[in-house]
Write a structure and sequence with these properties.
The chain is built from two helices and three strands, in the order H-E-E-E-H. The protein has a three-stranded antiparallel β-sheet with strand order 1-2-3, covered by helices on one side. Helix 1 runs parallel beside helix 2. The model has no long low-confidence stretch (mean pLDDT 90).
Length: 94
Amino acid sequence: MNAIAKPELFSIEAIRLETLARKVAEELVALSDPSDTVSVIKSNWIHITYLGRGSESYELSLSGEFSDKTRIAYQNDVVLRLNKIKSYILEEAA
């Protein structure tokens, strides 16, 4: 079995992760609470504001100018971070 993945498999993984990042971002928007944490998707970015505590923004997908390997690594990081934020919001609401 060949240990090197085919390029088209990298592309599929990059797209899967982009879709997952968008899904989690939309879940964060649904969890927005104007008195605590507000999440807004604008174009290809999610902006998260922790009222009175700061904010952060993430690009939801990188352009095709980046290699699949870079896009996959970036998307993994974004999905992990957005899921941590989602967990934090859910814990605070409990």
